[in-house]
Amino acid sequence: MENPFVEWLLETLDARGMSRQDLADKMGMQSAPLTNIVNRRKNLGVKLAKRIALALNIDQSEIFKIAQLQDDDSDGELDPITAMAVSVIKKMPLEDREMTLDYVNMIQRRNERKRQKLIRASEQKS
Q1: What is the pTM of this model?
Q2: Rounded to whole angstroms, what are the CA distances from 117 to 43, 105, 124?
Q3: What are the Cα distances from residue 30, in Å, to 23, 25, 76?
Q4: Rg for the chain (alpha carbons), in Å?
Q5: pLDDT tens digits along 32-90
Q6: SS3 letters for the chain?
Q7: For residue 99, what are the domain limits?
Q8: Crossing angle between the packed helical segments 46-56 and 94-125, to the nearest 10 degrees
Q9: Could you read off the pLDDT of 76-87 as tens digits, one per residue?
């Protein structure tokens, strides 16, 4: 399964003549978290996305879109449950909001993996 963020990151680093280690150094961290994301062993979270944006001098909202950490098709209309969730989340400290978003993204990725598994299983039966 392709990962638009990983593809974008590798192309961006290549265009800038940077390695993953160069980026990690600029971020003040070891390269293992980046390697895990590139190798699809871990998913990109909000905190790491922000650090990458800062290190590459790119607006974090752009990275969030590429990494699908935010929904860019929102039409502004929220159902009551979503509106309530947004209201509660807005009252949380920033760090808690980031952790909540990481959790929601993890659930979405898990559900997507389950969906893909079901599709593969039904294709094998055909």
Answers
A1: 0.58
A2: 18, 18, 11
A3: 9, 7, 39
A4: 17
A5: 999 998 888 888 888 888 899 999 999 888 888 888 776 544 555 767 777 788 888 88
A6: CCCHHHHHHHHHHHHCCCCHHHHHHHHCCCCHHHHHHHCCCCCCCHHHHHHHHHHHCCCHHHHHHHCCCCCCCCCCCCCHHHHHHHHHHHCCCHHHHHHHHHHHHHHHHHHHHHHHHHHHHHHHHC
A7: 4-125
A8: 110
A9: 576 777 778 888
Q: How far is CA 104 from CA 17, 31, 94, in A?
A: 34, 25, 15
The tokens for 50 are 């922000």
pLDDT tens per residue across span 99-111:
998 998 899 889 8
**For the chain, what is the domain count?**
1
* Domain containing residue 32: CATH number: 1.10.260.40
Amino acid at 32: A
